[in-house]
Amino acid sequence: GTVPPGAHGRFTLRTHSCGELRTAHLGEEVTLCGWVQYVRQDLFQPFMSVSPVMVTPACSCLTHVSSAILTGEIEVHANNVEVLNICQKLPFEIKDFVKKSEGLRMQYRYLDLRSSQMQYNLRLRSRLVMKMREYLCNLHGFVDVETPTLFKRTPGGAKEFVVPSGEPGRFYSLPQSPQQFKQLLMVAGIDRYFQLARCYRDEGSKPDRQPEFTQVDIEMSFTDQAGIRDLVEGLLQYSWPEEKGFVSPPFPVMTYEEAMRDYGVDKPDTRFEMKLVDISGAFHNTQIQFLREALHQPGGSIQAICVPQGAVSSTHMHFSFSHLPSDNFGRLLPDVSRQQLLQMVGAEPGDLILLTAGTEGRVRPLLGRLRLQCADLLEGHSVKVRDPSAFHFLWVVDFPLFLPKEDSPEQLESAHHPFTAPVPEDAHLLYSQPHKVRGQHYDLVLNGSEIGGGSIRIHSASEQRHVLDTVLQEDPSLLSHLLEALDSGAPPHGGIALGLDRLLAIIVGASSIRDVIAFPKSFRGHDLMSHAPDFVSEEDLRPYHIKVTWPEGLTPGGEDQ
Amino acid sequence: GTVPPGAHGRFTLRTHSCGELRTAHLGEEVTLCGWVQYVRQDLFQPFMSVSPVMVTPACSCLTHVSSAILTGEIEVHANNVEVLNICQKLPFEIKDFVKKSEGLRMQYRYLDLRSSQMQYNLRLRSRLVMKMREYLCNLHGFVDVETPTLFKRTPGGAKEFVVPSGEPGRFYSLPQSPQQFKQLLMVAGIDRYFQLARCYRDEGSKPDRQPEFTQVDIEMSFTDQAGIRDLVEGLLQYSWPEEKGFVSPPFPVMTYEEAMRDYGVDKPDTRFEMKLVDISGAFHNTQIQFLREALHQPGGSIQAICVPQGAVSSTHMHFSFSHLPSDNFGRLLPDVSRQQLLQMVGAEPGDLILLTAGTEGRVRPLLGRLRLQCADLLEGHSVKVRDPSAFHFLWVVDFPLFLPKEDSPEQLESAHHPFTAPVPEDAHLLYSQPHKVRGQHYDLVLNGSEIGGGSIRIHSASEQRHVLDTVLQEDPSLLSHLLEALDSGAPPHGGIALGLDRLLAIIVGASSIRDVIAFPKSFRGHDLMSHAPDFVSEEDLRPYHIKVTWPEGLTPGGEDQ
């Protein structure tokens, strides 16, 4: 870190942290405080560091030493040793190589956090957000504004936790993001806003989701998409941890259509090739029935990916295909098609070609998932596909503004949220063919994960009213305060939110965002240490005018019968 | 601010902010974006600044100008003016001298925030917290750790909002502070923790309280009271806004007993004298019956304050006394007592002496309140008592660790919280006379308001168990995770929490913390802009297995009958 030398001793009973002592300190009298890792033959060895840069874990007793025993270049001789606290037998040893179950780690999180990896993760998180703040606040004049988390339920906010108030029937809602507030701050003339915002989402038991998470929330007036991209690229470049290499703006920009065409997904992992190839042209006159049928349906297409050296590795690779007679397929192809196919996908001897036929809308995502599974499988067998130390950033733009609703496809819903402005050249289509409108939404993708998303917002009250009333057929009265605000001279504005937990997990190479959060919930939303959520007495609920409705088979205060 | 010149134009459609233009820019072509304050004879004049340092408010239309009209030393001539948005008639004029009702300000908060005072308050808040972070994180190696807000109800946490989970009968709780987590982080070896923590407290309709508020939350290992005081004094000195003068550590330290004795309150406003004086000595042989009676009861005392020039001003001052025949009182005193009294309180001609008799426990707080009321009354009549630009910091220490419970005085409760360590020389009394133990708690007081509080914590599991089990008679199983954590080698540790909203309100001289919060709730806990809290349908509550219990006379979804 950049912390001045000697700073870690200030305000404490020690004169130095253990990690600070060097040959320059020879002959000095020092006072150290720390943990003893283990005691052997009445000597505690090694005396462990409490340097805030890397704390090594507690074990048997906690000491306060005027001059003691240290590893490294120097030795500290003890004049006096004071035991500050003792330690009972721990549920697991605190050594990085001791594997613990996830449940045990969560139950004794305060011990798990003593591991060098978790110390690194939390300290890196602190350093990174500090650099982000410096960039936004000190270098670019952004204003850090806190917005409420006790708010009103948003239309369609099915994933919002409710918080009963003291007034019968009235509830606050924990918002999924400060979206409305950040826009209102632009109307309020704040010009440049940011916040490390706590957000809430009740998604039940989705893997690797947390009911509360943190986003780097940003909004700017008088800007455009290029302005936001510049800002965020500079932000990441400035705050990126030194030991993780460099971030080199500008990041590539890809349209949604290109991403779906080449990678079969809207968040492509561009660390490796294996792009989707449309090979329909090689099969125009095919006699193979399932390919003919696929090509003749509306939007029909045959597409492939070529897995380099996949045939060599394929004895290890097990895919489950339905409808695809893969073993016999090569024999069915006429030589000419086979040659054309190999050329189109650029196959070399030993490569594996995976082919799908059907409507484009189904074929692309399927191949997109297969592409990622192939990469995982190959890497599982030590074939190098992706550089684990590489960070590939990518902007994806030109998303459709609206999508057909899944349960009633004749109706439209916002692809992201109803405040996203249309791409200027599509704006007139809002009033005639809204399904064709592209939105000024942008996603930031890192190594195949979406780590941020944002948009230029609608700043015209009449356009916003049209989108809510006519296109989405939602009740605009729920957002009347926002519409009124737009009517009071709202500047053009836009912003972005970066998922801090996900970004950090990728930076430190963690498999779960739980590893970059100090006290995460389990995948069922439980705090295994304190046993939250917990039962609350009827009496304690009375001031909130609510009562539990027990499903059949459950009894108050009890478990499943 | 310290933001580099030109930074406010970056990432935007403008080349400069209006406030940036100087004679050095003469002859340049610039693009400006901003609000027009008013239009007069087809000229908008003045074109208002969107400098992020001070935004002046929007009015009739929003423009985008290549070269326009500016106040100050230079003029900008417009080549082209583009209207970016229009503005409907506003509910109030955005001029600082236009007084608006609190309700209107809250309903149209996004307009209210355009006032120069609110812009100043929010931008100062951002600057101040940034400086605090620099001090803690960059200069002193503190780690910024986010802790959960969806937690478990704490024992006796009557003021905690509950959040229903998807599991029948189970609730999260929104914690009043990260107290348990900050202590667990010390056990986890984080050594130095801080967080700008969102906290929650359901206090119904208390004036000038907010259901969510922010505290600067700090905890350190291997420290003591002096260490925490040093740290906080340095923090305030470093982050203090230049334009508000200087903070000069060390701050005075006063014991709880001294504060009560001299000021009748545990958060003395030391900007002015008028201290309490025990004048019992002048009345040992008094014949006045109510004084005799007062002195003869256990703990009986006669005390006074002397209000300088209060007799002169007293024709304007109206106190309501019961039991005190004030007009005739002077005549009842023998000359010798009167002289002694005047001398004891140091009265000069024209001063007013206020005298109370009774038990010390009642007399001191009463005089303490009278002292503050006198100051207010005198200032209301333009007598200078307190310097409005002065900031008097004060530490109050040596609080009692336990107090008798109000409703059952034979039982003890924590004066602050059950984790506070005893003063070392009183520790043995924990096991014999707990009511006599002083705690290592400290309050930070600014101008008579408590702006922070903290303590050195108990780090011995057995001591903590004794306090919970035997002294407080609470169920220790609710805190078993914390007790287990202390048993795993917890270092000695302590910390503090500063109330950020209150601190800022005092710095900017606001009468309410609402003036330093972007989107505060009304005193009834309502968001008057969005109408939170609001009704939620039975269907939306079903996933949480709760149902509203409507009090008689109220109907679902309706108001009072």
From TrEMBL, chains A, B:
Q: What is this protein called?
A: Aminoacyl-transfer RNA synthetases class-II family profile domain-containing protein
Gene3D superfamilies linked to this entry: Bira Bifunctional Protein, Domain 2 (3.30.930.10), GAD-like domain (3.30.1360.30), Nucleic acid-binding proteins (2.40.50.140)
* Keywords annotated in UniProt: Aminoacyl-tRNA synthetase, ATP-binding, Ligase, Nucleotide-binding, Protein biosynthesis
Keyword presence, Translocase: no
Cross-referenced CDD domains: AspRS_core, EcAspRS_like_N
Q: Which family does it belong to?
A: Belongs to the class-II aminoacyl-tRNA synthetase family. Type 1 subfamily.
> Where are its TM segments located?
none
Q: Give the UniProt entry's GO cellular component terms.
A: mitochondrion
Q: Which Pfam families match?
A: tRNA-synt_2
NCBIfam families in the record: aspS_bact
Q: Name one GO molecular function term.
A: aspartate-tRNA ligase activity
Q: Which ranges carry the Aminoacyl-transfer RNA synthetases class-II family profile domain? A: 122-520
Species for this entry: Denticeps clupeoides (denticle herring)
Signal sequence, renumbered to the chain: none
InterPro entries recorded for this chain? Aa-tRNA-synt_II, aa-tRNA-synth_II, aa-tRNA-synth_II/BPL/LPL, Asp-tRNA-ligase_1, Asp-tRNA-ligase_1_N, Asp/Asn-tRNA-synth_IIb, AspRS_core, GAD-like_sf
User: Which terms under GO biological process does the entry name?
Assistant: aspartyl-tRNA aminoacylation
Which domain of life does this protein belong to? Eukaryota
- State whether keyword Aminoacyl-tRNA synthetase applies: yes
